[in-house]
Amino acid sequence: MTELTIRPSEKTDIGAIYEIYENEVLHGMATFDEIPPTRDELLEKRAQIRRLGFPHLVAEIDGRVIAYSYISLYRQRSAYSKTVENAIYVHPSHQGAGVGFKLMTVILQECKKLGLKNVIAVIGDSNNHGSIKLHKKLGFRKVGILNEVGFKFGRWVDVVIMQKQI
């Protein structure tokens, strides 16, 4: 693998971000979205995350975005203000190559700088061993499973909840 660069996302990255997310919507369980959002909707989500002062990062190789990650509010109520939820999406051709680990390491460093207390991972599908393993390697611990709360691709799907205290 050529050198990996991790940096804040830019509006011009939205095409690559859309491609990565669309693939996950249509073929994966990392999201329970069933219809891909538009590029404009992804731009608005990015802007909302940035307005909150949260990181929205991309990983790129040779100028090509191959993954992205961000944190967002875990819940709206003020008592949750120091707890966030993470999201990470890696292009299928780069999954399992360590990109997610490097990108999430930077996200967690940013969480620490922001004085956050907890990061929650809401992982679609208890069979999503790659994501579960990644979060475990980063120090997350499994705190629960919500059984059969999503229905996608004709089957009921669990959600695994993992937590990391900063």
Largest sheet: 7 strands, mixed
Could you name the CATH topology? Answer: Aminopeptidase
| Uncertain stretches of 5 or more adjacent residues | none
CATH architecture: 3-Layer(aba) Sandwich
How many beta-strand runs?
Answer: 7
Portion in strands: 35-45%
Spell out the CATH superfamily. Answer: Gcn5-related N-acetyltransferase (GNAT)
Structural class: alpha+beta
CATH C-level: Alpha Beta
Describe the protein's topology.
Layout: E1 4-8, H1 14-27, H2 39-51, E2 56-61, E3 64-73, E4 83-90, H3 99-113, E5 118-124, H4 129-137, E6 141-152, E7 155-165
Parallel strand pairs: 4-5
Antiparallel strand pairs: 1-2, 2-3, 3-4, 5-7, 6-7
Entry summary:
The protein is of the alpha+beta class and 166 residues long.
How does this structure look, described?
This protein is an alpha+beta fold and 166 residues long. The chain is 31% helix and 36% strand. Strands 1-2-3-4-5-7-6 form a seven-stranded mixed β-sheet. β6 and β7 (155-165) form a beta hairpin. The chain is globular and about 40 Å long. The mean pLDDT is 96.
Summary tags:
166 residues, alpha+beta, Aminopeptidase, seven-stranded mixed sheet, 4 helices, 7 strands, 31% helix, globular
